[in-house]
Design the sequence.
């Protein structure tokens, strides 16, 4: 399994984090992810924790293997509806992102 830890740090608590509860992520997108990634065992865990000061959100995702991550990252539906809007939102709002990957 591969554990990916993503940390989003925002400049102010008045700027919402981008996450699965973001309005851009519609029910259709959530269903697609559930059907093709969660139900198939590719995405095992998707957990979020916000720091006490509210400025940092840590997302922990546990993936079946590197292939599952690669499939998700190259899925054109995910690129168009999740990755591209997420990257644009974070750049526009000054949210700094770090990603760490480890085999567990």
Sequence:
């Amino acid at each position: 399994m591969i554990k990916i830890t993503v940390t989003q740090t925002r400049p102010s608590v008045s700027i919402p984090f981008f996450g699965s509860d973001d309005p851009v992520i519609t029910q259709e997108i959530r269903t697609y992810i559930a059907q093709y990634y969660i139900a198939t065992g590719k995405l095992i865990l998707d957990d979020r924790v916000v720091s006490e000061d509210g400025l940092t959100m840590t997302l922990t995702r546990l993936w079946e293997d590197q292939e599952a991550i690669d499939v998700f990252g190259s899925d054109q539906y995910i690129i168009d509806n999740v990755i591209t809007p997420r990257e644009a939102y974070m750049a526009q709002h000054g949210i700094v992102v770090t990603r760490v990957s480890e085999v567990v």
Q: What stands out?
A: The mean pLDDT is 95. The radius of gyration is 14 Å.
